[in-house]
């Protein structure tokens, strides 16, 4: 690695990007008031305004080359394809069918355990923690109102299930970002990650069983479903685990979901096309943000900011485990600051890749570390989107949910254990 220490002032665009979130949240009391796209545009302008010795045209050239990097562009394509599949599956009833299947299987004496497991299954199918919270939070509220279970516990359970699948799903934007920035395969990252999240989920289920022992209601309701509507989610999950190219998986999944919808009358050809279009539109924002952050990172690297960060982080690293903890610390700090696990991975991913290469950390492992720690903190910070959505629906303070964030806390603990003792069943390639 170069002995040059780099330039800390080159990091100003990223500092401004983070401060926009924190400052706006503190002033307004709502950490969702600053749109990502506006914040990244401001950070981009600051990046281009720096280093006055260079011509603006040259800086724009650096910015656009970074934004148009093949890895960034492929990530953007995957984002919009994931959006198309997600919206198409939702439009033909896959979400409702998946929710109802899970709820119909919940035993009356294992309400919170069942709710958590349903949340895990839905989120790994849908690829969105926010969508899972929106689908399950009202059901969790209903269960809490009919039992002695605290609302905060019910919402913490829903958020835990949502974070579980978001951390593993093949169509989750966080998983896509972790895999693409570390240049590894989706199936490999899944297998490496699975053995960390599984014990965390088991411990969470046991805790939920203990704290809600004796609570039950006679019936949750009549939840009908058609199993055929769940098939697109299962097909995408199985194909991705088998290592099929993610572009083929998402495109095929979208077509499969559309065909089911056309045959059962959920879609006309026109409405199917509209669903695909809406799904793409839903993910355009995060795709554009990823592209612009790619440009910002390129300018920061050109100005010596990445070199400064690498020196600051790696100067204290003595071992490979130290490097792994450095990656975990970087993504954790960024997620706490931005309250967005996808953005935190996109921001720290390139730096994590440099550290991983320097200390010969397998890409599957660095991708898993990024996703584990970003996801864990995302389920704890009270100003994160998942917390705000759940607390808003339940009309309670997001801070009251934190003590019941059993799964996110377990995820972080098992992530630390995995770094200390090595990933279970993990073999270096």
Automatic annotation (TrEMBL):
Na+/H+ antiporter NhaC-like C-terminal domain boundaries: 16-210, 232-423
Subcellular localization, as worded in the UniProt entry: Cell membrane
Membrane topology listed for this record: Multi-pass membrane protein
UniProt entry tagged with the keyword Cell membrane: yes
TM ranges: 7-28, 72-89, 101-122, 192-210, 230-263, 275-300, 401-423
Recorded superkingdom: Bacteria
Protein name in the entry: Na+/H+ antiporter NhaC family protein
Lineage, uppermost ranks: Bacteria, Bacillati, Bacillota, Bacilli, Bacillales
